[in-house]
Amino acid sequence: MADTLEFNEIYQEVKGSMNDGRLRLSRQGVIFKNSKTGKVDNIQASELAEGVWRRVALGHGLKLLTKNGHVYKYDGFRESEFDKLSDFFKAHYCLELAEKDLCVKGWNWGTVRFGGQLLSFDIGEQPVFEIPLSNVSQCTTGKNEVTLEFHQNDDAEVSLMEVRFYVPPTQEDGVDPVEAFAQNVLSKADVIQATGDAICIFRELQCLTPRGRYDIRIYPTFLHLHGKTFDYKIPYTTVLRLFLLPHKDQRQMFFVISLDPPIKQGQTRYHFLILLFSKDEDISLTLNMNEEEVEKRFEGRLTKNMSGSLYEMVSRVMKALVNRKITVPGNFQGHSGAQCITCSYKASSGLLYPLERGFIYVHKPPVHIRFDEISFVNFARGTTTTRSFDFEIETKQGTQYTFSSIEREEYGKLFDFVNAKKLNIKNRGLKEGMKQSYDEYADSDEDQHDAYLERMKEEGKIREENANDSSDGSGEETDESFNPGEEDDDVAEEFDSNASASSSSGDGDSDREDKKPAKKAKIVKDRKPRKKQPESKKGKDPNAPKRPMSAYMLWLNASREKIKSDHPGISITDLSKKAGELWKAMSKEKKEEWDRKAEDARRDYEKAMKEYSVGSKADSHRGERSKKKKKKQEKQVKGKGDKKGATSKSSSSKSPAKGMSDSFKSKEFVSSDESSSAESKKEDSEDEGAASPPPSSEDSASGSD
């Protein structure tokens, strides 16, 4: 028999939600790693007390009970895996994997049994449901009634808020069954009560999320955030990770506490508690414990009297109480020397910290991404300017994070860091020696080599050499639009050819005239790609028929109001998801009805396009004829004006002028081909025929004389 068993896509039931992950069974015990948070549950083999196999909603499930009363539930097994698991439990854990089915009679009258940290409601010998008492947030009693309230779970779409139990009165004297029931619950429930004095208090700390200034009271099992409006009680068991991050200005420090489950205020969830400290702020701290208690509990990690920077004191106390390591930035150093990168995420500016095992973004909203959950990263061009780029991260669950507006000077440092951590890069060329090919994720760049990186490094060297140079040429080099597909040699050749052409044009040209063609060529090259966009927009005719909608879009437009009425207050994204689910579940006959409507709309569109194309051609022909006619009329009016303004002397010399007009033409009428010259001659002949008005009064008078 194998020493280990591994199962993928197993779901752990935690507070009513199913967290997917990987389950591994070995001789030493059972290990489950959450795919979302990376949290690991380790159950030693010696702690296992009972194993139960039963049918659940997601197939079959495994319930493990430990000797100290903890319960672990894992779902997603297949029925055929029971024999393999049963044999493994017998061989390595010396446990019999019992099969127990849940009672589905639907009765609401039964017996409550308390076993460890579990409340089980049974009918006969079969359990109906079980409640982990660690999920209970409050327990209140009434007349023959006990009410249990639960911690709200953010990962579950529907959360159980409370359960009420009716406890019938008994004839036994001196024993109140309601109080006995409540005491059994409270002894195991996760009810936070501020009993005793705080170990220490930090006054008026600046908190970014949740925003405000809070007094932090440190208790043995939880910390209490006390603000002007809200109070939060955070058990140390919900603290997942601690981070201490230096601000880019080197004068402030972030202290980040990752929470799972998060604290909540109304509909807002705070997965991270972020405190901002000034490095110059110092504090002298005295713990509310005697020296023996401090030494016994913290084993030298804390002392009764401490002094130093405020952020050091807070992080030191939290590390000792939570018993978790503090994560700090690794050896990454950006272009400016800081250990972070300035960027934007979801239209808010913040700082991205590359860590040894992940990335963390602060502060709005905070994001922590571990390397082991990253599928690949991508370096993309900036959408608005060429001076910045976007850094995209996609996780194995399909979630995508885009950090935009990163200065292009940071590209080389970030690329080297990602490459050193052996993360898959989406737009890396084949020459980099990738083990996997990501052809299906083809990037917009056509070049296989990383021209972006090479250009960035070269421009960085040039910028360092010319740091003190403030000439116009250096300014133009900075403002030049960046095109990765173009080589630097092409730019140099263009300037050389222009310079030589201007110098050879004549000896009388000045230096300023020599510089003009080079500058003009550069401007044309920079502005060329930007001029293409408005030209493409001009071709769209607003009078053209609109493209037909698909069957799904026709159905969505007709059903949108009904979905809104069935789900009041639904957001746009949730409405789209819900519509997709309804369309997917729709029968084939109903879909065919909308397909027919879409086909009718397509035929109407094709018919309208034919009529539109015929009409547009006719309009273009009429427009060309009207332009020619207008041009001809302008020439006739011009010829008449010249005749009226002519004197008798010019009229007597009409014949020589006619010969001259045949031989002389201005520069704008000189054409390069024969067809244009023939057209110009024809126009001149027409002008001569049209420009022969009747004799004016002055001409008749001179004739009579």
UniProtKB/TrEMBL annotation:
Q: Which domain of life is it from?
A: Eukaryota
Biased-composition ranges, Acidic residues, are 474-496
Low complexity biased stretches? 497-507, 647-663
Q: Which InterPro entries match?
A: HMG_box_dom (IPR009071), HMG_box_dom_sf (IPR036910), PH-like_dom_sf (IPR011993), RTT106/SPT16-like_middle_dom (IPR013719), RTT106/SSRP1_HistChap/FACT (IPR050454), SSRP1-like_PH1 (IPR048993), SSRP1/POB3 (IPR000969), SSRP1/POB3_N (IPR035417)
Which ranges of the sequence are annotated as binding DNA? 545-613
Q: Name one GO biological process term.
A: DNA replication
The molecular function GO annotations come to: DNA binding; histone binding; nucleosome binding
State where the protein is found: Nucleus, Nucleolus; Nucleus; Chromosome
Which keywords label this protein? Answer: Chromosome, DNA damage, DNA repair, DNA replication, DNA-binding, Nucleus, Transcription, Transcription regulation
Q: Where are the compositionally biased (Basic residues) regions?
A: 517-531, 624-633
Pfam families named among the record's database cross-references: HMG_box, PH1_SSRP1-like, POB3_N, Rttp106-like_middle, SSrecog, SSRP1_C
Composition-biased stretches, type Basic and acidic residues, lie in 532-544, 634-645
DNA-binding as a keyword? Answer: yes
- Record PROSITE patterns: HMG_BOX_2 (PS50118)
Stretches for region Disordered: 458-552, 609-705
Q: Which residues form the HMG box domain?
A: 545-613
Among the entry's GO cellular component annotations, what is one?
A: FACT complex
- What family classification does the UniProt entry report for this protein? Belongs to the SSRP1 family.
This chain's function reads: Component of the FACT complex, a general chromatin factor that acts to reorganize nucleosomes. The FACT complex is involved in multiple processes that require DNA as a template such as mRNA elongation, DNA replication and DNA repair. During transcription elongation the FACT complex acts as a histone chaperone that both destabilizes and restores nucleosomal structure.
PANTHER family, sorted: FACT COMPLEX SUBUNIT SSRP1
What is the official name of this protein in its record? Answer: FACT complex subunit SSRP1
